[in-house]
Design goal:
Shape: elongated
Number of helices: 1
Mean pLDDT: 95
Distance between the termini: 14 Å
Largest sheet: 7 strands, antiparallel
Number of domains: 1
Structural class: mainly beta
Low-confidence stretches: none
Strand content: 35-45%
Helix content: under 10%
């Protein structure tokens, strides 16, 4: 079954993810695992075992620039509870520090900002209802 990106929501909050941020794109959240090579001299091909997940140092979301939201995000100075929820109710939760920056601009274009969340916990996945 396929689902659409319509209705995907990013939320944050000090105690629970309740404040919604309107986004245009989202990054890969639960990244692939690294591969630890286990090849020996008697193997004729490389072999591996899974290592830890290669989580980026920040999750970057694109949003339309909004001065009030930009200021509010950059005033946060504590770890926030974060969630990314898909239209079927499934999604990810994690803790992290949130900041915002403006993106490059072009002629005749929408001004955008990047919302970056530096994770302080491992994202967890929960299936939808």
């Amino acid at each position: 079954m396929a689902i659409s990106t319509y209705g995907v929501s990013l939320k944050y909050g000090a105690d629970s993810p309740s404040k919604e941020l309107v986004i245009k794109s989202y990054p890969e959240i639960m990244a692939k695992r690294s591969a630890l090579e286990t090849t020996t001299l008697s193997d004729d091909a490389k072999t591996y075992i899974p290592g830890i997940r290669e989580t980026p140092d920040s999750f970057e979301f694109t949003a339309n620039y909004d001065a009030a939201v930009f200021a509010e995000i950059n005033a946060l100075d504590a770890v926030q509870k974060c969630s990314l929820t898909f239209s079927d109710g499934s999604g990810f939760t994690w803790d992290g520090y949130i900041s915002a920056s403006t993106t490059d601009g072009d002629v005749d274009a929408v001004v955008e900002m990047t919302i970056a969340i530096t994770p302080t916990s491992v994202p967890t996945f929960a299936a939808g209802a």
